[in-house]
Structures are given as structure tokens and as C-alpha cells.
Design goal:
This protein has 15 helices and 21 strands. With about 525 residues, the chain is an alpha+beta fold. Among the domains are: about 100 residues, Succinate dehydrogenase/fumarate reductase flavoprotein, catalytic domain (Flavocytochrome C3, Chain A, domain 1); about 90 residues, Fumarate reductase/succinate dehydrogenase flavoprotein-like, C-terminal domain (Methane Monooxygenase Hydroxylase, Chain G, domain 1, Up-down Bundle). The chain is globular and about 65 Å long. It starts with a strand and ends in a 6-residue tail after the last strand. The structure holds flavin-adenine dinucleotide and succinic acid (SIN). Flavin-adenine dinucleotide binds next to helix 1, helix 5, strand 9 and helix 12.
Length: about 525
């Protein structure tokens, strides 16, 4: 093995990257590149848990049905079948690697989240599931022969004869550029939540994998579907902090600023309705009462339940002067999860030979137009494992199932707008929040699309981490906005005030590819 040559290079060290690294290390040499420290990622902040049909009243079939229903007609049924059938095997891996899921009398405890027909969410440390998963897996990876390079930002996918040859990266501490070669390159770079003014996402989640893949010629699918979490702490001067859906699963109630419970006015499932419905209902209620938040109320629950089941949330609010066992929690929706991403087949393979994607950056087709709560940690491991299986099969000369053919479009070109404000990160985040957020309309999307295209054309060559991230965010913003503009209907998390219903002719995917049609 040459110094910079590996069998596997994995970009990202959240659940997808670390889990794949542990399995891949049994097959060959592995390098992880990660742009911050290992544990800087979204995984670490996951609260609710990981879904899997483990309960006596549950089955993979029931989990399959709930996932398809959440996807609102756009999930790929074969992918969902893989997700729900292969869940138990991957959960067994996580347990084997040491993830300490919560138990009662020797059995794993399961909680409920919205749109799940039974309790099926496994958690660890109450609401500290992500932290336990991240720390357990990163510790384990460090004890293997996997090489980890922190503060290394992947900036370009290197190709030779249309196949992956490696990756170029920037050492963010000293500014040096390196190239690494590999047989299989795996993007595990997470979503793009930092696109929005209000988000639950970590600073590192800037759509890099999607932007790198698009630049290399990979297909990007379903990016108009961005999930907004309904209940994120909204306290002046305090960064958005997730208040888990499991809080509503355990009996938390939403009240408007006048103290009245409002969810039953909107939908029979009330607080346990799908996330997009709860998020939009909160927006309507905030508009009606002219306020910038509603309240989540857990004061009727036993303080012991609240403090032991949700220790992180309790502590965080307490540190900001709020005892949630006694007072109401001000909450509002925030950007949370990108359903679409780099289009892959059921083995995590993109349309470029040797390039794979897993975790939130990938679009496996399981989530369709909306993700069922706690299915993303599961998707990361189920499809992550298949990436490693696929590379083993490819090494034996076996052909993988190719991506089904779709009809990709290219990004349209615009005339530059002379009245657009100059680009900066807060400006981009406000534009996306206001014009490409929870409620969208053709007019606002068109405005945003023109501004974004102008900004993209004005971007200088990136040279450091912030400028690379801004580049990537602008490209992702363009992809999301153009897809949202094309989809003239409302479905799942994508809501158009000018097309408020789902339309049968739109039961299809929007796929982008650079130079499509040329
Ligand atoms: P991440 O964990 O986000 O990791 C991405 C990694 O890529 C990071 O290490 C980052 O530094 C690295 N990276 C990115 N770009 C580059 C680059 N250019 N070069 C090098 N490295 C790069 N899902 C559930 O299923 N259950 C939950 O309870 C749950 N709760 C959540 C709570 C919060 C607050 C949030 C934000 C999300 C939650 N989710 C939950 C969603 C879930 O956490 C994520 O979808 C999942 O963790 C994504 O894992 P990942 O490995 O794909 O990406
Ligand atoms: C939550 O705990 O509410 C987040 C769960 C998820 O996003 O899957």
C-alpha cells in the first residue's frame, strides 16, 4: 500500500461513516477524512432514537407500512423493505459494538414517535441516543487500524475514465492540499441543514457531499423534500435546540400563546400527527396569534419521568433559566433533515463507478417525500452495511444492480440580477428560510432561484473551509429551489400555497445531473 492509497476512503465521521469504517476495516485499508474533530456531526445530537421492529406487538411489515405512509407515495418500496427487514441485523451490530441502549428488566425499552403505529424507538441515555452512538463508534474506530484525518475538508472527487480515482482535500489547520487514491470512495457527509436561518443541525452540515457529487457528475434526487422539525426551542439569544418528538410521544401537549391546546383543531392525531402537518399547524397558529412561538407543555407529566427520560433537554432548558417540569417550553419549527440527496441504488452505489453515498447525504428512496421519525439513523446503518457488501462483491468481479434509469435535468441558467443583495452566509440562510422554507409559492421560489443563480455566478474560487462551505451551500440551495419550483404540487414535506394538493402526475422524482441532456 502506498502512503496515500487506500481500499476505502470515507468522507465524514457520523454514524454512516463510522459504522461503514468498522465493517470495511475487516476487508481492507480505510481512511476517514473529516472536516472537524471526529465527533463534530449531526449524529451526536440525535435525541429520539433509532427505529426498528423489536417489540412484541411489532413486525417489519408494520414498520414497512408506516414508512411507506410517511413517504406520501414517493418511497421506493423495495428500499423500504430492505430497511425494515435488515434493521434487526444492524441493531445487533450496534449492540455488539457497545451502544448502550436503555433497558428495563433486561429488555430494550421502546418509545413512540409521531406516525409510528406502535412504540418502536430504541434510545440510549434517555434523550442522549446520538451521543452514545457517536462516542461508542468513534472509540471503537480509534481502536482499529482505520486512519482518521481530522480537520481535513474533502474539496473534490478525482475521476479517471469516468470512475473514481480518489479525493482532493484541504488540511484546514495548515492550508495544505493533498490527494488520496482509493478503490471505493464513500460520501457520508450528512445533510444540508445549515442552509436555513433556523436549524437543529450542527455547523458542519453544509451539503458538501451533494455539491461534490454533483460537480463530479453524480445524480441528485428528491432535494425539494426538506423536513422541518415542529418543536425546536425558541428562546431569544439561545441557539435552536431540539425538543424531541419523543416528548410528545410521552404525552407532551402543544398550546398556543394563549395557553389553548390547538393540535386537535387541525388533525385527529393531534400532537402525534406526521411532522410536516404539526409544523404547518404551528405556523398557522403562530400567524393567527401573531407570535413567533407556541408552547410545549409537560407540566402535567411526572417530574421524575421528565428528568429521567429527557435528561439532556431538562438540563439544557434549566441552564437557560427554564424548569420544564414547572413552566411551558417556547418552541417553533426549524430545518431538520434532507430527504433527498445523492441518488444511489440499493447498494449505495451512485451512477459513477466506485462512488458510494450513505447516511443523510444519500437518497436511497426510503424516505420519499417525508421521513418517518428515527428512520435516518437506521437507514445509515442498513444501507451503510450494504455499501461494504457491494464493494466486496465488486472486488470479486460481480456486477451490481445499476441505478434505474431516470430522466435527469440540468440546472437552468438565468440572467444576472443587478438588484440582488451581495452574498453572505446569514443572507443565504434568511433567503432560504423565507422563500424556500415550510410554505413555498411559485413567486417566492422564482425570486430565490434568480438570486441564487446570481450569487453562484459571483462566487470567487474557494480557498478555505468557510468559502468551500459557502460554495457548497449555494449549489445545494439552487438544487433545492429549482426542484421546489418544478414540483407544482404539495406532497409530504414540500408544501406549495399555490398548488396545495398532491397530484397523481407528480408521483415521480426530480433528478438533477450536471450537463444533463448535453
Ligand atoms: P452526520 O452525522 O451529520 O455526519 C456528517 C459528517 O461528515 C461529519 O463528520 C462532518 O464533519 C463530515 N463532513 C461533511 N462534509 C465534509 C467534507 N467536505 N469533508 C470532510 N468531512 C465532511 N435521526 C434519527 O433517526 N433519530 C433521531 O433521534 C434523530 N434526532 C436528531 C436530532 C437532531 C438535533 C438532528 C440534527 C438530527 C437528528 N436525526 C435523528 C437525524 C440524524 O441524526 C442524521 O440524519 C444522521 O445522524 C446523519 O448521519 P450521517 O452520518 O449521515 O451524517
Ligand atoms: C426527535 O427526537 O424528535 C428527532 C427524531 C428524528 O429526527 O428522527
Amino acid at each position: 500500500m502506498k502512503n496515500n492509497q487506500f481500499d476505502y476512503i470515507i468522507i465524514g465521521s457520523g454514524i454512516a461513516g463510522l459504522y461503514i469504517a468498522l465493517l470495511a476495516a475487516e476487508q481492507g485499508s480505510v481512511l476517514i477524512l473529516t472536516k472537524g474533530s471526529v465527533d463534530d456531526c449531526n449524529t451526536r445530537y440525535a435525541q429520539g432514537g433509532i427505529a426498528a421492529a423489536m417489540g412484541r406487538d411489532d413486525s417489519p411489515d408494520l414498520h414497512f407500512d408506516d414508512t411507506l405512509a410517511a413517504g406520501d407515495g414517493l418511497s421506493d418500496a423495495d428500499a423500504v423493505r430492505i430497511l425494515t427487514d435488515e434493521a434487526a441485523d444492524c441493531i445487533a451490530d450496534l449492540i455488539r459494538f457497545g451502544v448502550p441502549f436503555d433497558t428495563l428488566n433486561g429488555e430494550i425499552t421502546l418509545t413512540r414517535e409521531a406516525a409510528h403505529s406502535v412504540s418502536r424507538i430504541m434510545h440510549a441515555g434517555g434523550d442522549a441516543t446520538g451521543e452514545h452512538i457517536e462516542v461508542t463508534l468513534s472509540r471503537r474506530v480509534r481502536s482499529t487500524g482505520v486512519k482518521i484525518l481530522e480537520n481535513c475538508l474533502a474539496t473534490e472527487i478525482l475521476l479517471r475514465n469516468d470512475s473514481v480515482e480518489g479525493v482532493r482535500s484541504l488540511d484546514c489547520r495548515i492550508g495544505s492540499v493533498e490527494e488520496y487514491r482509493c478503490r471505493s470512495l464513500i460520501l457520508a457527509t450528512g445533510g444540508a441543514g445549515r442552509l436555513f436561518k433556523y436549524t437543529t443541525n450542527s455547523d458542519v452540515v453544509t451539503g458538501d457531499g451533494i455539491a461534490l457529487a454533483f460537480a463530479a457528475g453524480a445524480e441528485i434526487s428528491d432535494v425539494e423534500f426538506f423536513q422541518f422539525h415542529p418543536t425546536v426551542l425558541r428562546l431569544p439569544g439561545v441557539a435552536p435546540f431540539l425538543i424531541s418528538e419523543a416528548v410528545r410521544g410521552e404525552g407532551g401537549i402543544l398550546r398556543n400563546v394563549e395557553g389553548r391546546r390547538f393540535m386537535p383543531d387541525y388533525v385527529a392525531e393531534a400532537e402525534m400527527a406526521p411532522r410536516d402537518i404539526v409544523a404547518r399547524s404551528i405556523v398557522y397558529e403562530m400567524q393567527k396569534t401573531d407570535s413567533d412561538s407556541v408552547f410545549l407543555d409537560v407540566t402535567h407529566l411526572s417530574p421524575r419521568l421528565v428528568t429521567t427520560r429527557f435528561p439532556q433537554i431538562y438540563r439544557f432548558c434549566q441552564e437557560h433559566g427554564l424548569d420544564i417540569t414547572k413552566g411551558l417550553i417556547p418552541v417553533a419549527p426549524a430545518a431538520h433533515y434532507l430527504m433527498g440527496g445523492v441518488r444511489v441504488n440499493s447498494w449505495g452505489e451512485t451512477n459513477i463507478k466506485g462512488l458510494f453515498a450513505a447516511g443523510e447525504t444519500a437518497c436511497t428512496g426510503v424516505h420519499g417525500a417525508n421521513r418517518l421519525a428515527s428512520n435516518s439513523l437506521l437507514e445509515s446503518v442498513v444501507f451503510g452495511k450494504r455499501v461494504v457488501e457491494a464493494t466486496e462483491r465488486a472486488a470479486c468481479g460481480e456486477d451490481l444492480v445499476p441505478l434505474p434509469v431516470d430522466d435527469p435535468c440540468a440546472l437552468p441558467e438565468y440572467e444576472r440580477c443587478s438588484t440582488c443583495p451581495p452574498l453572505n452566509l446569514p443572507g443565504l440562510q434568511s433567503l432560504m428560510w423565507e422563500k424556500v422554507g415550510i410554505m413555498r409559492s411559485g413567486k417566492e421560489l422564482r425570486d430565490a432561484a434568480r438570486t441564487l443563480a446570481t450569487w453562484e455566478a459571483s462566487l470567487p474560487e474557494p480557498s478555505d473551509r468557510p468559502s468551500h462551505e459557502l460554495h457548497n451551500l449555494v449549489l445545494c440551495a439552487r438544487l433545492i429551489t429549482e426542484a421546489a419550483l418544478l414540483r407544482e404540487e404539495s406532497r409530504g414535506a414540500h408544501f406549495r400555497t399555490d398548488f396545495p394538493r398532491a397530484l397523481p402526475e407528480w408521483q415521480r422524482h426530480i433528478v438533477f445531473r450536471k450537463n444533463a441532456g448535453e
